[in-house]
Amino acid sequence: MKRLTILSLLALALGLAQAAGAHGIKSGVDKNATPAFDITTAEATTDGRLTTFMMEVAGAAGSVKPVPIGQLKGAKVEAYVWPTALDPSTVGFDKASGILALAITAHPDFDDTPLYDENGDGDPANDGADWHSHWVVLVEADACGAGLKVRDVSPGVDLLPATAPYFPIALDSPGMSPILDGRQARITVPVANAEAVAFDAVTAELQVNVNGEAPLLCVTGVHDVASGDLSLPGRVRAEQ
């Protein structure tokens, strides 16, 4: 696992750097990495109304999930993440409040998508172990193993999207269905006018604080970063 600095990422997300770059991102295979989280390529496309984010890994995407521990405190999360230069207000969070990232996650010890029944069993509160989607706002946190956390918030005080589960973190559960097929993880979201927006791709492990206090959800380790340095070199391109 890696510890990362996000100073360059913060600069990009806040609009302080918007240099042109390649559309997609290529990343070499790391023989020491878990293949399911070893990113080889990442891309993003838009038709002007919807935007699709994709990453390809060396192994089977989604084949590795956290081991259940039977409780929320200390629960682990595995995630395929696309940090972006979109402002968090794009999807309903407070403006300029951190890094808006799209994530596909799995965590068997809790369910944070109360509006959706991902496994189709009639109970919308037992689906955390199935891969599902989130928007999150990331900020720096020295207390977290990888130097990042999902931003702590106060529901009713800080802005949250209408589909947020109202955890005390900047997390939205919008219900878009991810697709993990073979080596590819991808998801389409209703974000318009996204052409040329900067992005990166990350595979990471998160953990709920064992004390139930802030920082509530830490990024504890990073498996891989497509760019190698979180510089957001990818650009959303228009569909051909």
Put the structure in a nutshell.
With 240 residues, the chain is mostly beta strands. The chain has one helix and 15 strands. Helix content is 3%, strand content 32%.
Describe the protein's architecture and organization.
By secondary structure, this protein is mostly beta strands. It has one domain. 3% of the residues lie in helices and 32% in strands. The longest helix is centred in the N-terminal third of the chain and has 7 residues, at 7-13. It is globular. It starts with 6 loop residues before the first helix and ends with a strand. Mean pLDDT is 91; it is low at 11-21.
Distance between the termini: 37 Å
Helix fraction, binned, reads: under 10%
- Structural class by secondary-structure content: mainly beta
Radius of gyration: 16 Å
Largest sheet: 6 strands, mixed
Topology of this structure?
Blueprint (H helix, E strand, L loop, with lengths): L6 H7 L11 E2 L12 E8 L4 E7 L18 E8 L15 E8 L25 E9 L7 E3 L20 E2 L6 E3 L2 E6 L8 E2 L2 E7 L8 E9 L8 E2 L1 E2 L2
Parallel strand pairs: 2-15
Antiparallel strand pairs: 1-2, 2-3, 3-10, 4-5, 4-12, 5-6, 6-7, 6-8, 7-13, 9-10, 11-14, 12-13
Highlighted features:
240 residues; mainly beta; six-stranded mixed beta sheet; six-stranded antiparallel barrel; 15 strands; globular
